[in-house]
Design goal:
This protein is of the alpha+beta class and about 325 residues long. Helix content is about 30%, strand content about 30%. The chain has helices spanning about 10-25, 25-45, 100-115, 150-155, 210-225, 265-280, 300-310; strands at about 50-55, 70-75, 80-90, 95-100, 120-125, 130-135, 140, 145-150, 165-170, 175-180, 190-195, 195-205, 205-210, 230, 235, 240-250, 260-265, 315-320. α2 packs across α6 (about 265-280). The model is unreliable at about 280-300 and about 310-320 (pLDDT under 50).
């Protein structure tokens, strides 16, 4: 059809609407596109690159012989990579395995060879919200395809070359919300008290954090790190509520006798942050498997949201 055809705009719009409806109804496509966008935003945020561009745009000839990977990355040290991004999800946390058809792998590998660039796979293990970057040659035959298990991929991970880091700090991290003494704060018969927050204090271990930049960092670690938020604790002055405190602690101490412990990687924290910005206001769990979060009554995500509500809205409730 000619671009000058009077019916061109209407025909094009109709086809575009059909294709868009099909895409929005395809969960695999949506999760894949979201994961690619998340990877791009992550690499830009980490900042350890010289050049980053989308590679899989346009047609590659001869058709059927090559598949362009998702991204081209040039590092400051001179390395040049082609990176294919994959979202990997299995409901069983202990059974995480990435697989790709030999034909699809060969097309990606042929393109990388023609471009004289190593081929890498950026694997987002959604159940664990963990990123790993591995070389294409690390894949092995599995059930007629090529693949790798998450726990075998871990020691091969090259995300550090893109700026990813493991973050550690001294536990616990604490958020203490002080009650306004000029407002009612006595307990009711069922153990509840209306709490109007006068001010908040943030602690690392027993040390209060007063620098605003460090307070913001602590909040990011609490909000998006791997430590668990326990039930709120109430500090009483007789029958009156003095403060409510939330504590974030490691699920288990793995770095004793050192005072600090690991709270997560930059990439995993960014992934959780990205989920809050792209999956809406509701808890990103259940059918939203790509968030890599698990929900139950009083889940970690909900508790942290409750902390934010109590800190910024004056009419929150606290239970003793």
């Amino acid at each position: 059809m000619s671009l000058r055809d009077p019916n061109f705009a209407e025909t094009f719009t109709g086809i575009a609407k059909e294709r868009l409806a099909e895409a929005l109804d395809n969960d695999i496509l949506l999760h894949g596109q979201r994961t690619e966008n998340m990877f791009e935003a992550l690499i830009v945020s980490l900042g350890h690159y010289k050049l980053l561009k989308r590679e899989d745009i346009g047609v590659v000839h001869p058709e059927g012989a090559y598949t362009a990977p998702d991204f081209r990355v040039h590092l400051h040290g001179g390395a040049k990579w082609l990176i294919e991004v994959k979202n990997v999800y299995d409901a069983d946390p202990g059974r995480q395995r990435f697989r790709i058809r030999q034909q699809d792998f060969d097309h990606l590998k042929s393109y990388a060879s023609a471009m004289d660039c190593p081929l890498k796979f950026a694997l987002y293990w959604a159940r664990w919200r963990t990123w790993m970057l591995i070389d294409a040659d690390d894949l092995v035959p599995i059930d007629g395809k090529l693949g790798i298990d998450m726990f075998k991929a871990a020691p091969l991970n090259e995300m550090a070359r893109l700026g990813d880091r493991m973050i550690g700090t001294k536990p616990p991290l604490k958020l203490r919300l002080f009650a306004d003494k000029t407002k009612p704060r006595s307990l009711s018969a069922d153990g509840e008290a209306a709490l109007t927050v006068s001010h908040a204090a943030v602690f690392c271990g027993d040390t209060e954090i007063t620098d605003q930049v460090e307070r913001n960092i602590a909040w990011i670690l609490m909000e998006f790190g791997d430590w668990e938020c326990g039930d709120p604790g109430a500090a009483m002055n007789g029958d009156e509520l003095r403060a409510v405190e939330f504590q974030w602690t490691p699920r288990e101490r793995i770095n004793e006798p050192e005072e600090f412990d690991m709270i997560g990687t930059l990439s995993s924290m960014f992934s959780r942050y990205y989920a809050t910005k792209t999956l809406g206001r509701r808890c990103p769990n259940g059918s939203r498997a790509d968030a890599g979060l698990v929900c139950s009554a009083g889940c970690e995500w909900s508790q942290r949201r409750r902390v934010a509500l109590m800190a910024f809205y004056p009419s929150s409730k606290a239970r003793r």
